[in-house]
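Reminder to self: tokens first, then the designed residues, so the page reads top to bottom the way the pipeline ran.
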């Protein structure tokens, strides 16, 4: 009896059942800035550090699914083919970050990361801004607003 209990404790099934918990959170920055044409990493990870290998990971922009990881398979969303990826080698350490390559202006906006483990789903939202546009906004000040007065 003792040997069979010890065998179970060493088994992958036991490790998975001990790892399954609704006590994880998703941690990531609220915002990230990148230039058009560059690559952006939307950093997101599980806390505490749990393996996400057997979890379901979905990244959305609005209602569009950008990337789906399910049953150890990655599916890129329509319009993102060849431009998005997960760091699959890092899933074991809870890294569920999304990389978007060749950013365009239309890639700016809010991205939602959704991680599901069994009946538990956690979410994290990250805003992607074009750093060039945000610098342009900062450059325009009151001296740029020319007031010619009322028309006569």
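Designed residues (152 positions):
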């Amino acid at each position: 009896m003792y040997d069979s209990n010890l065998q179970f404790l060493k088994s992958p099934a036991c490790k998975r059942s001990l790892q399954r918990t609704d006590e994880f959170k998703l941690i990531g920055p609220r915002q990230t800035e990148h230039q058009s044409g560059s690559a952006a990493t939307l950093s997101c990870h599980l806390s505490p550090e749990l393996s996400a290998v057997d979890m379901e990971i979905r990244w959305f922009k609005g209602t569009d699914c950008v990337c789906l990881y399910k049953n150890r398979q990655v599916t890129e969303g329509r319009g993102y083919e060849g431009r998005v990826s997960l760091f699959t080698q890092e899933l074991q350490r809870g890294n569920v970050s999304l990389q978007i390559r060749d950013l365009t202006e239309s890639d700016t906006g809010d991205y939602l990361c959704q991680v599901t483990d069994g009946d538990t789903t956690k979410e994290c939202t990250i805003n992607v801004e074009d750093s060039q546009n945000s610098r342009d906004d900062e450059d325009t000040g009151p001296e740029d607003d020319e007031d010619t007065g009322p028309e006569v």
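Helices lie at 2-10, 12-19, 131-139.
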